[in-house]
Design goal:
- It is built from five helices and four strands.
- It is of the alpha/beta class and about 180 residues long.
- A four-stranded mixed sheet has the order 1-3-2-4, covered by helices on one side.
- Helix 3 crosses helix 4.
Length: about 180
């Protein structure tokens, strides 16, 4: 499989999807701008990922790292942080393959889904290190929450994304370092 990273215009679309998703999550979980600092995460696309952060099997991969003092991520304290590794090539393949699926609504869906995981991990509603059965149950919960949040959102093309991925069980992989 060819792993083509997003082009400049596609990165701009992803950045917009991140902004929209962060706003939706802020409203849904009642998170203020200052409270976002305790949700330690970063979002990177393919060209910024290390080889072990790349997968061909999911739209994203969540990695948990121990952040050391001086490293720049969202959040101000040393400790665990989550890196959402966007898999450009897998997303591109879905957009090219599935008629009616466009980059912005799919990216908004993926990022919203991943940020719900980050919030749930940070609020200790779900342990990051869990059994396969617990991860599957968590994936179903987050899939349902993502659908609930986004079905009320007016993003052109989002109904097609929600319909296409309504039975999707795996959005990402969870890996810890």
């Amino acid at each position: 499989m060819t792993r083509l990273p997003f082009e400049t215009e596609m990165i701009a679309v992803l950045a917009h999807a991140i902004e929209v998703s962060e706003d939706l999550i802020s409203d849904f979980y009642k998170i203020s701008t200052s409270e976002w600092k305790r949700y330690r995460y970063d979002i990177q696309s393919l060209s910024s990922l290390d080889e072990e952060e790349i997968t061909d099997l999911a739209f994203a991969q969540i990695r948990r790292y121990v952040r050391r003092f001086g490293e720049k991520t969202r959040g101000s304290e040393p400790g665990d942080f989550f890196k959402i590794c966007i898999q450009d090539h897998v997303i591109r393949r879905a957009v090219e393959r599935d008629e009616g699926i466009r980059l912005f609504p799919l990216s908004a869906y993926i990022v919203t889904h991943e940020l719900i995981h980050v919030v749930r991990f940070a609020k200790f509603l779900q342990r990051f290190d869990s059994t396969a059965a617990e991860q599957e149950a968590e994936e179903k919960r987050v899939h349902g929450l993502t659908y609930e949040l986004l079905q009320k959102t007016r993003i052109p093309g989002l109904p097609e994304v929600l319909a296409a991925f309504k039975d999707c069980r795996t959005m990402e992989n969870f890996l810890s370092d």
